[in-house]
Amino acid sequence: MPDRSPAYAAALAASLHWDSARDEPYLQPPSFPDLRLVPYRPGIAGDLVTLFNHPPVGERLFVLPYPMSSAFAEQMLSDTLAKQAPILATLRARRAERTLRDSGEGQDEKVQVHAPVWPFKALWSEAEGRVVGDVFLWPNAEPLQVAGCEGVTGSGGAGRPGEEGEAGEGSEATNDETTDQHPQWTVGYVLEPALYGRGVMSEVLGCVLEGWVRPEMGVRVAASIAVDNAASAAVAVRNGFVYSREEGTEWPKEKGGGVRYHGLYTWPS
């Protein structure tokens, strides 16, 4: 049974921390002190190749190549670092302003983020010093910019999230138009197979939603999960996602081809 206690909910909501040594934010899963969700860092391309080339991971990805080459991983890392840079600069400015204010040297106002930005990406093992998972969060109105996949947009369930190796490292999961003032983003996630079955991704997703998306972004979130991936569906539902409908997607020939069916889920924020 998932922990639904007020104390656990509070821990998820308070999962945002700051690493003073690296001068970067991170999300800390409360039950897994060795793991943290961090921005992409230089030098992790080899970790990405290893992660995305696990068969349970790579074979389920819609857009990213399988197997993934080192050259592709290096370019994807470079592109992501460039996209992260202004977001991290804003967060550092906010932290500096708060530090000045708390010391009595700054004005009594903080640098606000409270905007739809996503500064995290890699699930990092502190003990092993490497990437063991990846979280994808992308606005549905914006095309995906990934090396070799520029301009890809959703066409009926292209993003594929899930704990057991299924992921949203493609375009958006759905073309549904937002019906209120909250824009919709798509979430996807992959995890090293050695960590399956421990509740890791359930808690990481909880940190993403409650520690960052709800307080900072104010957006709705969608997920598209293969109908044969009960574990991934459980991760989503456990975190408040609601099933919407099922749809099929023509799968790339190099990954088996055919039509694969996915359930669409939404998190209302």
Automatic annotation (TrEMBL):
Q: What is this protein called?
A: N-acetyltransferase domain-containing protein
Source organism of the structure: Cutaneotrichosporon spelunceum
- InterPro entries recorded for this chain? Acyl_CoA_acyltransferase (IPR016181), GNAT_dom (IPR000182), N-acetyltransferase (IPR051531)
What lineage does the source organism belong to? Eukaryota, Fungi, Dikarya, Basidiomycota, Agaricomycotina
* Domain N-acetyltransferase residue range list: 181-242
Which regions are flagged for Gly residues bias? 151-160
Example of a GO MF term: acyltransferase activity, transferring groups other than amino-acyl groups
Q: Where is the composition biased (Acidic residues)?
A: 164-178
Q: Outline the segment boundaries, as ranges, of region: Disordered.
A: 150-181
Q: Which Pfam families match?
A: Acetyltransf_3 (PF13302)
